[in-house]
């Protein structure tokens, strides 16, 4: 069954019904904005006049202080170059303690830039004067601003009684500044504020009912305009009184093609979606019968239910002007539901998504596009991905330059993220990755590669050793590093060099995890001997120390030569160990004083244990 919905948009009729409403609303809003702004400007000019007629005051404050003869409360004026404006004679009406509390209050306004926040809200009031929530927020901001300053004044140690009395005297003798962007001592509900100061309950918490009311009000603020817009949106249909034989202008229509269990010919489908196929349908008033409309400016509402995929391909071809060659194996029933019109380009992207969902793909081949199955084979892709949208389902090929890590190492990491029909390969000579996949997935892989391809830490790291020999530690670390799989896969090699002068190990190259592991191993190797350091005294029980000393010295020399490594650096290190090994005999205590590296010390102690025995 074939269903067609045609919606005609009569411009003249829309102008008659709603053409006067919007200009009237715009004029009303502009008049209200000008009124609110003019009122605020008049108040500001009165404050500026008082500031212009003021004189410099000698009080010490964080901003300039001026004294005015106008009966205004103490207030901070301006936010770019703020000035504290004090009424003349306030020092005679308030005690020094009260003056100090009032100045502390104004200091809070200056530090928190309350005037700037209030000026911004005044601008919002001028633009959205029609919304009652804006005016409620303005009053709430004034209350919260003054409460915060009162909390800070009391927290600084000013007595509540003196501070409250100072506020009462200010409000008794001076007028409150009526402009919202002038921060003064007043500005809030006076009685509730004085009670809060005296009872030390400035911090208020909302009850459950208050939170519920605020939540309902916020939800209504969002929901009511949306509901009004949905309920009052115009619906234009065919004009009444039009002749039944009058042909509609196809260029001013929105079409909703609906197909249910449809199997129609290639000519019927374009007619169903609003594409005329006869010369008479193209004809317009005064236009040639062969002139075709511009389809790129039309909107389409595709609605298909259990429709054959070839039918949808025909509709897409009619909407976009693209030519398709459909493989005979491409068979599927598709359902597409849409409630809003879309452009031909969006219609084509929707069609590509449908093909991907059914394991089909669109292959560009010159002026035509082939629709084929078999997603497991490598598919030809466009080699100019910069001309494609990053969210497109087109097949593209991208070459990514990798700067800081090995491209070959990234292949096994990224391989699970590439579908079977895609391709991922590394070119080690130039350290590049070649990716063939849909444009959306290629863009995601490029973002992942960018997060992985970070500059490594190539500084030389020096690890000082306290107990172990640098040469011996390097020999052990190199042995452990010889079978590292990361170096065999093209990773950055790690260089380990001993420094015999400072008895330290120098590590360079490699990634952070490798260097951290080598540092931990070096610290484990640098452990002291259980019985002491490089110099020990060994008391003999049975043999003479002077007689056994030459034998121990020869044993130490032999141990050093036997453990010499073929590496030049390690051989030099062990030669230094051999030269530093010494032994002395002390006749008075019959003891040997031995100085040797830990490696030789352990072997020497084992030899002495076997020599120092009772004779038979």
Alpha plus pi helix count? 21
Number of structural domains: 5
Determine the strand fraction and express it as a percent band: 15-25%
What radius of gyration results from the CA coordinates? Answer: 44 Å
Helix/strand/pairing category? alpha+beta
**Spatial strand arrangement across the major sheet:** 2-3-5-4-6
What would you call the quaternary organization?
single chain
Which residues form runs of ≥5 with pLDDT under 50? 1-17, 234-248, 255-291, 565-571
Structure description:
Mean pLDDT is 74; it is low at 1-17, 234-248, 255-291 and 565-571. The protein is flat. The longest helix has 32 residues, at 21-52. 45% of the residues lie in helices and 17% in strands. Strand 17 and strand 18 (504-509) form a beta hairpin. It is an alpha+beta fold and 616 residues long.
Give the topology, please.
Elements: E1 2-8, H1 11-18, H2 21-52, E2 55-56, E3 65-68, E4 75-77, E5 83-87, H3 90-93, H4 96-112, H5 114-127, H6 132-155, H7 160-173, E6 183-184, H8 190-199, H9 208-231, E7 253-260, H10 268-272, H11 279-282, E8 303-308, H12 309-320, E9 323-326, E10 333-336, H13 344-357, E11 361-365, E12 368-372, E13 395-401, H14 407-414, E14 423-427, E15 432-438, H15 439-452, E16 461-464, H16 470-481, H17 485-488, E17 494-499, E18 504-509, H18 512-525, E19 535-539, H19 545-562, H20 568-580, E20 582-586, E21 591-595, H21 598-611
């Amino acid at each position: 069954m074939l269903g067609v919905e045609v919606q005609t948009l009569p411009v003249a009729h829309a102008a008659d019904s709603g053409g006067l409403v919007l200009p009237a609303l715009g004029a009303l809003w502009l008049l209200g904005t000008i009124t609110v702004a003019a009122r605020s400007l008049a108040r500001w000019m009165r404050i500026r006049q008082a500031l212009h007629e003021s004189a410099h005051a000698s009080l010490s404050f964080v901003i300039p202080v001026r004294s005015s003869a106008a009966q205004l409360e103490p207030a901070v004026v301006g936010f770019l170059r703020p000035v504290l404006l004090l009424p003349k004679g306030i020092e005679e009406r308030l005690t020094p303690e009260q003056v100090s509390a009032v100045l502390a209050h104004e200091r809070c306004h200056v530090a928190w830039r309350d005037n700037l926040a209030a000026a911004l809200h005044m601008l919002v009031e001028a633009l959205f004067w029609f919304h009652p929530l804006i005016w409620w927020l303005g009053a709430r901001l004034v209350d919260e601003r003054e409460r915060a300053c009162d909390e800070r004044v009391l927290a600084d140690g000013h007595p509540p009684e003196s501070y409250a009395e100072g506020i009462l005297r200010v409000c008794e003798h001076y007028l409150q500044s009526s402009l919202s962007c002038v921060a003064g001592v007043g500005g809030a509900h006076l009685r509730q504020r004085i009670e809060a100061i005296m009872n030390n309950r400035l911090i208020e918490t909302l009850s459950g009912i208050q939170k519920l009311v605020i939540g309902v009000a916020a939800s209504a603020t969002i929901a009511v305009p949306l509901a009004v817009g949905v309920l009052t949106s115009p619906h234009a249909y065919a004009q009444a009184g039009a002749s039944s034989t009058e042909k509609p202008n196809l260029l001013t229509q929105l079409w909703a093609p609906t197909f249910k269990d449809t199997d129609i010919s290639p000519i019927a489908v374009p007619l169903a979606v609003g594409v005329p196929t006869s010369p008479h349908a193209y004809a317009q008033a005064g236009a040639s019968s062969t002139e075709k409309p511009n389809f790129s400016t039309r909107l389409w509402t595709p609605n298909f239910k259990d429709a054959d995929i070839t039918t949808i391909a025909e509709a897409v071809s009619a909407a976009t002007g693209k030519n398709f060659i459909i493989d005979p194996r491409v068979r599927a029933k598709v359902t597409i539901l849409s409630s809003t019109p879309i452009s031909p380009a969006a219609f084509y992207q929707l069609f590509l998504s449908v093909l991907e969902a059914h394991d089909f793909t669109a292959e560009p081949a010159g002026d035509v596009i082939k629709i084929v199955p078999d997603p497991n084979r490598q598919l030809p892709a466009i080699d100019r991905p910069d001309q494609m949208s990053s969210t497109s389902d087109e097949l593209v090929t991208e070459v990514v330059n990798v700067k800081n890590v090995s491209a070959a190492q990234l292949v096994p990491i990224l391989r699970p993220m590439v579908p079977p029909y895609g391709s991922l390969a590394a070119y080690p000579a130039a350290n590049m990755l070649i990716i063939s996949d849909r444009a959306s997935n290629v863009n995601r892989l490029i973002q992942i590669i960018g997060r992985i391809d970070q500059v490594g830490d190539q500084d030389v790291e020096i690890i000082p050793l306290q107990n172990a020999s640098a040469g011996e530690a390097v020999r052990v670390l190199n042995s452990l590093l010889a079978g590292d799989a990361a170096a065999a896969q093209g990773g950055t090699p790690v260089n380990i060099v001993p420094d015999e002068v400072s008895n330290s190990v120098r590590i360079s190259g490699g990634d952070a995890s490798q260097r951290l592991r080598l540092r931990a191993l070096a610290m484990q190797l640098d452990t002291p001997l259980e019985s002491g350091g490089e110099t020990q005294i060994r008391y003999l029980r049975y043999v003479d120390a002077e007689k056994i000393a030459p034998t121990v010295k020869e044993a130490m020399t032999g141990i050093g030569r036997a453990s010499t490594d073929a590496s030049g650096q390690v051989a030099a290190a062990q030669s230094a160990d051999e030269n530093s090994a010494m032994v002395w005999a002390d006749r008075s205590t019959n003891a040997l004083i031995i100085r040797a590296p830990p490696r030789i010390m352990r072997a020497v102690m084992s030899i002495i244990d076997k020599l120092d025995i009772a004779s038979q």
